[in-house]
Amino acid sequence: MDTDSLSSISAINSANTRSEFVNKVKSDIFKAKNMVGLSWVKAHVGIPGNELADQQAKLAITSGEKIVIPAPYSHLKCILKNYIVNKWNEYWNSYDSTSGIRVRGSINQVSATFLIHNKFLIYFLSGHGPFPSFLHRFKFLDSPHCICGMLGNADHYIFSCSLTKEFHLIKPADEHKKAWFNNLLTNRQAVTKMEGTFRTSRDFCDTLTQERDHN
């Protein structure tokens, strides 16, 4: 049997193929014992059988019968991955908590490849961290306000608190938040400033907690 498909011969020779179709072909060849052989030939060089096969393949595109061929594992995996990510995005867009709305203000959509390892970036993104406004929600502090008197949330310490001025970042306009955060992910200098800010706010919160416990 002659074929111009070198990839088909390689698939049949492979011991690691997961394709049900290829494994069926291998089984048929094995059952035929020495009655069937495979050889590779160049395409479009005038070999009658090969030219006829090409003609039949072209004819099948326009007038052949529709048949169902089992999808390979990789195709099914791709479909399931897309389905899961789509469902994840549906949940993402419908999650109307304070933190959900805040995160969506900086990130367009979920992604299987998007992952943040830096805890300080997560503090900022979620608003959950060493901030009086967050700790007050769980009654660890009596007030949501910073030592300076303003509401002590993540944005306050990053952009405006006089006590963290040396670490301040320039606050983006609302329409530029997503681009700003995307740039922040790869801006090591800015991330270092953010780390300094939140270490300082953590010290403030520790001080406020100790004062509360002593009273």
Folded structure, characterized:
The structure is a single chain. It is built from ten helices and two strands; from the N terminus they run E-H-H-E-H-H-H-H-H-H-H-H. By secondary structure, it is an all-alpha fold. It folds into two domains: 2-63, no CATH class; 116-214, no CATH class. The chain has a two-stranded parallel ribbon. InterPro entries: RNaseH-like_sf, RNaseH_domain, RNaseH_sf.
Walk me through the topology.
Layout: E1 2-3, H1 6-13, H2 20-31, E2 39-40, H3 48-63, H4 73-94, H5 98-104, H6 119-126, H7 132-137, H8 154-160, H9 177-184, H10 188-214
Helix pairs in contact: 1-2, 6-10
Domain RNase H type-1: 1-62
Organism: Araneus ventricosus (Orbweaver spider)
GO molecular function: nucleic acid binding; RNA-DNA hybrid ribonuclease activity
- Count of β-strands: 2
Helix content, binned percent: 55-70%
Summed up, the domain count is 2
Overall pLDDT:
87
Taken from the alpha-carbon principal axes, the silhouette is: rod-shaped
Order of helical and strand elements: EHHEHHHHHHHH
Portion of residues in beta strands equals: under 5%
Largest sheet: 2 strands, parallel
* Global Rg: 31 Å
Q: Which stretches of 5+ consecutive residues score pLDDT under 50? A: none
Oligomer: single chain
Output the structural class: mainly alpha
Number of helices: 10
Distance between the termini: 91 Å
What strand order characterises the main sheet? 1-2
